[in-house]
Amino acid sequence: KKLTACLQGQQGVDADKRSKKLPLTTLAQCLMEGSAVLGDDSLLGKMLRLCGEAEDKLAQELIHFELQVERDVIEPLFVLAEVEIPNIQKQRKHLAKLVLDMDSSRTRTSSRLTCTILWPKK
């Protein structure tokens, strides 16, 4: 849960929806709109367009990275935390019970052997 909070986009949503909610994408759109208003004739307009394209590429890379982290790190950890660890804990409890049963059986067997040795049947 803490890892998913670190992601800037929403978890489990496709790339297009993530892109719309990302601040980098919004900034890129604003820069592109500003460049359209100023036009490519002005130096500032060209600079805004260039920066907008760069921000858009950064946003796409961030989305790609977050999808990859979600697929390669978060989902396996979720399966580990939600499925594997409870199974391991259940198996440990069962093993502890079996060990106790084995110890009590061993004690009973040992005491029977002791009784048999001390008081042999006639």
TrEMBL record:
InterPro entries: AH/BAR_dom_sf, BAR_dom, RHG17/44/SH3BP1-like. Keywords: GTPase activation. SUPFAM superfamilies: BAR/IMD domain-like. Residues 1-110 form the BAR domain. GO terms for cellular component: cytoplasm; dendritic spine; leading edge membrane; postsynaptic density; presynaptic active zone. One of its GO terms (biological process) is negative regulation of Rac protein signal transduction. One of its GO terms (molecular function) is GTPase activator activity. PANTHER family: 3BP-1 RELATED RHOGAP, RHO GTPASE-ACTIVATING PROTEIN 44. This is BAR domain-containing protein.
